[in-house]
Design goal:
The structure holds 2 protein chains of 2 kinds. Chain A is built from 11 helices and 17 strands. By secondary structure, chain A is α+β, with helices and mostly antiparallel strands. In chain A, helix 7 links the parallel strand 12 and strand 13. Chain A starts with 21 loop residues before the first helix and ends in a 6-residue tail after the last helix. Chain B has 2 domains: 75 residues, Beta-grasp domain (Ubiquitin-like (UB roll)); 68 residues, Orthogonal Bundle (DNA polymerase, domain 1). Helix content of chain B is 32%, strand content 14%. Chain B is built from 5 helices and 5 strands, in the order ββαβββαααα. A 5-stranded mixed sheet of chain B has the order 2-1-5-3-4, with helices on both faces. In chain B, a hairpin with a 2-residue loop joins strand 3 and strand 4. The longest helix of chain B has 15 residues. Chain B is globular and about 55 Å long. Classes of the chains: A alpha+beta, B alpha+beta.
């Protein structure tokens, strides 16, 4: 056995390097966002929709406002006055901060209660009465593409269906020709269901706007503070919060896995309320909120095919994908399209040709396709390619590893 | 309501509502933020503390239930002599990544080692099965507990250098 190890005196290669951050973590002296406490800080809790698709007929906050310690109840209509009720996603789509008339997924934010204490904020949340007119939600992406399906994003001018984008890559002609003439072809349909990152620390923030200096300090559970600052400026630049007026502090984080890249509505509501009241606003979601409303990953319906010879030589692969992105396209993916699907899908084996196409659709679900280690769809590609490789091997009577 | 708690050797008399959770008294009233809240449902164990020597999940205990109790939190593990062996073991064996679950796992391990000073790997794994680590560091957590077990019994310490395979 060869050991790649330098001498003890030199250290480095082959030696265990101790972490500098351990000292604070093992003594309980880390600073996670819920540990941040600012003078005059108020607490926010969020009223969420029990329906996946519904019209909001009325929000009655009067009972909540009677509770001593409840300062305010903020709705989409309130934010609309300042044009802060919508925000962009990283994929150039739009997402509601708080809805003015329609909720698009179960557990969507409907109103925010601001109070002096987190228990009182929760009392306030329980006391807000919302009248809904439930509608039939679309939760199946295939149904969503049917001609008779209602247009979910009717907020978008000229939108006549639920299709988001079409993407294709590879050599279709050559791939199809190989499939047409191949000795052996196999096809496999698969659904890779939604999953959630469930980092052990949920998401949250403390938004602290200083009116005198027109400056926002944002403590938040984010993996992408620079991108977040840009998004905040895009949402709130028109009220004076341009990038240089915003400082994003990402303290110790209890796990991210990509789930702490997006901008969640709770952050923006906290900023808006801090901006309007001048008080620091703390928002910490609980586990149920985290699991129901934060971004999800996967939700890919894939038909994957492989063509080859009777002897087991692989010649080509072809993918057709339907991607359920929920009610908004909020992937955290600078390439805009699932480029990993092709590069990883074709990376492990020697193909003569390959072709892949994907279509993304809207449904009544929280944002999908966002995070669990990659919006580029690397994981989906690996699963699909190995699944069809196994099936191909079985058909030609070979060991998949050969 | 008025309750009295002894936390890490110091007695505190605090006013709480009947519904106030123990974890909020520790974190907010007493400002000891080393005890974390991960799930609010006693599933994850990030809020684990010792109540009268027994590990307990403080996110589902009412503060009033702990009236008169002796509590140890992560802030109470180290002494003026230095770190507790379990803290040393976690550091030397890379048993933590984000650090959020760490205080809870360490306190659970302290109770485990008190009752069973020389646990097998299986006993350790069962022993910490109420604590989740989402960075998936269980192998090194087990090693850290084995290291602390050796240290507390003045036995030869296992190597903390990387293994070559």
């Amino acid at each position: 056995m060869i050991q790649c190890k330098t001498s003890k005196a030199i250290g480095g290669m082959g030696h265990s390097k101790k972490r500098k951050e351990d000292a604070r973590f093992i003594q309980g002296k880390g600073t996670y966002v819920d540990d941040v406490k600012l003078p005059g800080m108020l607490h926010m809790d969020i009223v969420r929709s029990p329906y996946a698709y519904a019209k909001i007929k009325n929000i009655d906050a009067s009972k909540a406002l009677e509770i001593p310690g409840v300062i305010a109840v903020v709705t989409g209509k309130d934010l609309e006055k300042y044009n802060l009720h919508w925000m962009p996603t990283l994929m150039s789509d739009t997402q509601m901060v708080l809805p003015t008339d329609t909720v698009m997924y179960q557990s969507q934010e409907v109103a925010a209660v601001i109070a002096t204490d987190r228990y009182i904020a929760r009392d306030g949340k329980e006391a807000v009465r919302v009248d809904y007119e439930p509608m039939t939600p679309i939760i199946d992406p295939f149904e969503s593409l049917a001609p008779e399906a209602p247009v979910l994003r009717d907020d978008k001018e000229g939108k006549t269906d639920n299709h988001i984008w079409h993407w294709e890559v590879g050599d279709k002609e050559k791939t199809d020709a190989i499939f047409d003439n191949a000795e052996v072809t196999i096809s496999q349909q698969m659904h890779i269901p939604r999953i959630h990152v469930a980092s052990i620390e949920t998401c949250g923030c403390v938004a602290s706007y200083n009116k005198v200096e027109n400056h926002l300090t944002m403590y938040m559970t984010t993996q992408a503070p620079h991108a977040i600052r840009t998004v905040i400026a895009l949402v709130a630049g028109h009220v004076g919060l341009t990038e240089e007026k915003i400082r994003v502090i990402s303290p110790d984080i209890g796990g991210g896995f990509g789930g702490k890249v997006p901008v969640y509505p709770g952050y923006v509501i906290a900023i808006a309320v801090s901006f309007l009241t001048g008080a620091p606003i703390k928002w910490i979601e609980d586990r149920s909120e985290n699991l129901q409303a934060d971004s999800f990953a996967r939700d890919y319906h894939i038909t994957a095919e492989m063509a080859g010879t009777k002897e087991g030589k692989i010649l080509a692969t072809r993918f057709k994908v339907l991607a359920d992105h929920g009610y908004t396209d909020a992937s955290a993916n600078p390439s805009k399209f699932p480029t990993g699907l092709f590069s990883i899908g074709t990376g492990s084996y020697d193909y003569g040709a390959a072709y892949m196409e994907a279509d993304a659709v809207y449904t009544n679900k929280p944002p999908g396709g966002v995070a669990y280690r990659c919006s580029f769809r690397v994981t989906e590609a690996v699963h699909a390619i190995e699944r069809i490789n196994d099936k191909f091997a079985k058909k030609v009577g070979k060991d998949p590893a050969q | 309501m008025e309750i009295t708690l002894t936390v890490n050797g110091t007695e505190h008399t605090v006013q709480v509502e009947p519904r106030t959770l123990l974890v909020h008294v520790i974190r907010e009233t007493l400002s000891m933020t080393g005890t974390h809240i991960g799930c609010d449902t006693s599933s994850c164990g990030a809020c684990t503390i010792l109540v009268n020597g027994r590990s307990a999940k403080s996110c589902t205990l009412l503060a009033v239930q702990a009236n008169g109790a002796e509590i140890i939190t992560v802030e109470g593990l180290a002494t003026t002599e230095g770190l507790h062996p379990i803290q040393e073991g976690f550091h030397l064996n890379h048993a933590l990544h984000c650090g959020f679950c760490t205080p809870g796992v360490m306190l659970r391990a302290v109770e485990l080692l008190e009752k069973n000073p020389n646990p097998t790997e299986e006993e350790i794994r069962w022993g910490i099965s109420g604590n989740l680590c989402r960075c998936t560091g269980y192998n090194n957590i087990v090693k850290a507990i084995q290291w602390a077990s050796a240290k507390m019994q003045n036995k030869e310490l296992p190597s903390t250098e990387p293994e070559f395979v």
